[in-house]
């Protein structure tokens, strides 16, 4: 009578990463934020259907919101809910963290972007960071340093 349902499990807790942010920005400070989600979104996250490459964080009325993150709904999503893939999602942070982030963004010229989304137990967490933009010559210098580190490791391991 019972059906065997096979669910693809992700070995690591990572749901989505923003590798482009690490290339485009200098990461100054990282924070961990909770994410306010609906039921169908959690089911889609378990299937790994999230992208955060084009997303960013804005502050309004002493609250933090995630814009541009896409969670693709599953085909088996419930029929009484109309899923919106790119809706604005509220971030769950302490008051002190929000004030610190808002101060850095408004006064010091930093930006706030998500770096990764992952599972922490049964909760969904978002790693966000205060960042400064890189110029083209900074990106080239980072690439040269990365190549040199790779070559150095290759030489020492022979």
From TrEMBL:
Name of encoding gene: smpB
Entry GO MF terms: RNA binding
UniProt keywords, alphabetically: Cytoplasm, RNA-binding
Principal place of residence: cytoplasm
Alphabetized InterPro entries for the sequence: SmpB, SsrA-bd_prot, SsrA-bd_prot_CS
GO biological process, one term: trans-translation-dependent protein tagging
Pfam families for this protein: SmpB (PF01668)
One cellular-component annotation, GO: cytosol
Protein name: SsrA-binding protein
RNA-binding found in the keyword field: yes
Taxonomic path: Bacteria, Pseudomonadati, Pseudomonadota, Gammaproteobacteria, Moraxellales
Native species: Acinetobacter rudis CIP 110305
Annotated Gene3D superfamilies: 2.40.280.10
Annotated compartments: Cytoplasm
């Amino acid at each position: 009578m019972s059906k065997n349902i096979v669910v693809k499990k992700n070995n690591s807790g990572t749901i989505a990463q923003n590798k482009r942010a690490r290339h485009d920005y200098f990461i100054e400070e990282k924070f961990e934020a909770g994410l306010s989600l609906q039921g169908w979104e959690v089911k889609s996250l378990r299937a790994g259907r999230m992208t955060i490459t084009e997303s960013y964080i804005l502050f309004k009325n002493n609250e933090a919101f995630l814009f541009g993150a896409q969670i693709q709904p599953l085909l088996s999503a419930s029929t009484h809910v109309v899923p919106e893939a790119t809706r604005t999602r509220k971030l769950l942070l302490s008051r002190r963290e929000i004030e610190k982030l808002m101060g850095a963004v408004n006064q010091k010229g930093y930006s706030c972007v998500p770096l990764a989304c992952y599972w922490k137990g049964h909760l969904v967490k978002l790693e966000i960071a205060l960042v400064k933009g890189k110029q083209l010559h900074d990106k080239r210098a980072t690439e040269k340093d990365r190549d040199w580190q790779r070559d150095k490791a290759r030489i020492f391991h022979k």
